């Protein structure tokens, strides 16, 4: 058994203090890794099913081979790790705002230790939303480069964002700008902590085709019940 609580890292950011801690959970009988932004919980290693399903469901509808994938938000690394399980994936570029989170992975402090050792992975410290809105895109060395899939897990939901300026992304104009960074028939997939949002679905349908919201259920050891997250899926026409 490890120590009951240990802070592994923290850093001040424009959005607040981001921190990583590890604690022993007597209910789960396991070490739990948690990332917080101020007093808000961003993610926990207790709940990784939907993070992994974001990659699995997104790539399941993505056509072709030698896939180039963007992951928005590194977090604990489960989405990127799951994307790498798809043998068609040629490279995964993870766009993470916080250099502290990247440092935690480079030092293998997380349960996904070894992620950065995969030669297909690139960790980029940048603002995903600024890149999505710009013509240059996610690769300054190759302006306008397009990708087969973009998998996003940063905000709690389209309505519950971590930073006020992020809200612009979830509008028709914001999603249109994002779609320009996808190949034709490329996939956009988005994780949300909320139930499916009909208004947001309508916005997605104004930009993309084959839009759906899939609820992902998982065991919750804290409530001893079931919880759900939502994965939005859409295809560039």
List keywords for this structure.
single chain, about 240 residues, alpha/beta, Rossmann fold, seven-stranded mixed sheet, about 20% helix, globular
Summarize the structure.
It contains six helices and eleven strands. With 237 residues, it is α/β, with parallel strands linked by helices. Strand 8 (147-152), helix 5 (172-179) and strand 9 (182-192) form a beta-alpha-beta unit.
Q: Which percent band covers the strand fraction?
A: 35-45%
pLDDT averaged over residues: 92
Helix/strand/pairing category: alpha/beta
Number of DSSP strand runs: 11
Here the CATH topology equals Rossmann fold
Describe the protein's architecture and organization.
The protein has helices spanning 49-60, 78-84, 99-106, 128-133, 172-179, 198-205, and strands at 5-13, 16-25, 30-37, 40-44, 67-72, 89-96, 121-125, 147-152, 182-192, 209-220, 225-235. The chain has 237 residues and is an alpha/beta fold. The protein has one domain: Vaccinia Virus protein VP39 (Rossmann fold). The strands form two sheets. The chain has a seven-stranded mixed beta sheet with strand order 7-6-5-8-9-11-10. Strands 1-2-3-4 form a four-stranded antiparallel beta sheet, with helices on one face. Strand 6, helix 3 (99-106) and strand 7 (121-125) form a beta-alpha-beta unit. It is globular. It starts with a strand and ends with a strand. 38% of the residues are buried.
Write the layout of secondary structure elements.
Blueprint: E1 5-13, E2 16-25, E3 30-37, E4 40-44, H1 49-60, E5 67-72, H2 78-84, E6 89-96, H3 99-106, E7 121-125, H4 128-133, E8 147-152, H5 172-179, E9 182-192, H6 198-205, E10 209-220, E11 225-235
Parallel strand pairs: 5-6, 5-8, 6-7, 8-9
Antiparallel strand pairs: 1-2, 2-3, 3-4, 9-11, 10-11
Helix pairs in contact: 1-2
């Amino acid at each position: 058994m490890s120590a009951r609580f240990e802070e592994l890292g923290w850093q001040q950011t424009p959005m607040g203090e981001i921190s990583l801690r590890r604690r022993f959970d007597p209910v789960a009988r396991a070490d739990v890794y948690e990332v917080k932004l101020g007093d808000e919980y961003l993610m926990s290693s207790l709940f990784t099913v939907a993070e992994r399903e974001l990659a699995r469901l997104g790539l399941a509808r993505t056509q072709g081979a030698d896939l180039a994938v963007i992951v928005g938000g590194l977090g604990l690394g489960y989405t990127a790790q799951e994307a790498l399980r798809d043998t068609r994936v040629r490279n995964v570029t993870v766009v993470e705002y916080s250099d502290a989170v990247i440092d935690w992975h480079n030092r293998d402090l997380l349960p996904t230790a070894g992620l950065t050792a995969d030669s297909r992975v690139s960790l980029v410290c940048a603002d995903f939303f600024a890149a999505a809105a710009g013509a240059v895109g996610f690769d300054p060395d190759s302006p306008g480069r397009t990708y087969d899939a973009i998998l996003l897990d940063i905000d709690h939901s389209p309505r519950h964002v971590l930073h006020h300026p992020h809200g612009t992304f979830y509008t028709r104009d914001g999603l249109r700008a994002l779609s320009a960074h996808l190949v034709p028939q490329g996939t956009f997939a988005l994780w949300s902590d909320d139930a499916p949002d009909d208004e947001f679905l309508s916005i997605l349908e104004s930009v993309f085709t084959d839009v759906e919201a899939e609820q992902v259920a998982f065991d919750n050891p804290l409530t001893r019940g079931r919880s759900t997250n939502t994965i939005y899926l859409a295809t560039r026409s």
